[in-house]
Amino acid sequence: MGPFEHPKNSYYAATANAFQRLEPLSGSVAADVCVIGGGFTGLSAALHLAERGYKVVLLEQARIGWGASGRNGGQINMGLRKGPEDLVAAFGEARAKLLFDMSEEARQLIADRVAKHNIACDLKPGTLHVASKARDQAWMEDEVACLERVYGYKGIKFLDKQQTRAELGSDIFHAGVKDSGGGHLHPLNYALGLAKAAIDAGAVLHEQSHVVRIEKGEINRVVTTQGEVQAKYVVLACNAYLGDLEPRIAGKIMPIANFIVGTEPLNENEARDAITHDVCVCDTKFVVSYWRLSADRRILFGGGERYNTQPPADIGAFVQPYLARVYPQYAHKRIDFGWGGMLAITASRLPQFGRMGNVFFAHGYSGQGVALTGLAGKLIAEAIAGTAERFDVFSSIRHQTFPGGTLLRHPLLVAAMLWYALRDRI
């Protein structure tokens, strides 16, 4: 496997739908918009722009969905990483509700795209947020009340310990919040479906086309190792893999590593015991664990703490103890898959949208990217087309640069994460 192929031990790569290899960019081409990045954000932007009639060229340094979009937990969770009460405290009720309503639009956008383009990605309804500590129950009840009172959201239900146990084959959680509006999917197959839809709409996509620099001007030159795209508009959709391509925004995000395992398939009774209604699940720890069942009844479980970008020598052995803590009855199950990748967080845990002249960007989804990325692409397309009001709702959110800039941000994050991980254990 080359460095820019999909991870060889990924469940998603092993069960990916057939998808043609796309030729690298060669020579000089002209476009209205050059999109850099073939994940959810870039694919969504390319699709929405192509549907509006723009000539779009998308450049992906590896394969479509190679980054976080093809490796993540596949969970379509509610809202933003900040809770509903935190959003009200930060922005006031009116703006908080506007942000929340757009995040709900993001979730609906997935269902709409899957239906419109007939994307086979195992889309299923339902999410469950479970309380790792007894004291979490109080704020979870408050959040349900806030969602109903302030946001008018009715698809949510608080569960006590007994009700939570009825949803999960685990006794360690104290309460839960079940959301009928979310769900889960096979993220790589969803990305491949978006790519096909973008191609069908007229966008030109290139794989194995690493961008080495952007020469900004009235017409921007996006230069790869083998060619260049000349375009009035550029969309930076690189997220954790931005690198030093645009130093002015790199310090606003922090790339962090995450790892997932897939067990051998469970039988029908075991699967029903593990997750009764086949929803996806995440807990309330700062270093969050999250899990769901695959279409072939494997437990796909993400969790664990690691504070550098190098994967463990044995990802299965690294994550399995976290799975065993939740499901000791399945601790003996064989681990068939183990893979990892990078995601990007911001200091506020809210995504950063913005523009620098005619260069637009969106990144830092902080674990909420499955849905918000699609919205980001749609809002970027709206802004390029001349209607930026909705894009500006997000772009006006102020973001801190991580202390220490790009050089020292990671050691400082490690110190902070160690502290919060210690609090998880207390």
From TrEMBL:
GO molecular function, one term: oxidoreductase activity
Top class in the EC scheme: oxidoreductase
EC number(s) per entry: 1.-.-.-
Domain of life: Bacteria
Keyword list, A-Z: Oxidoreductase
A Pfam cross-reference name: DAO
Ranges where the Rhodanese domain occurs: 33-75
Protein name, as recorded: FAD-binding oxidoreductase
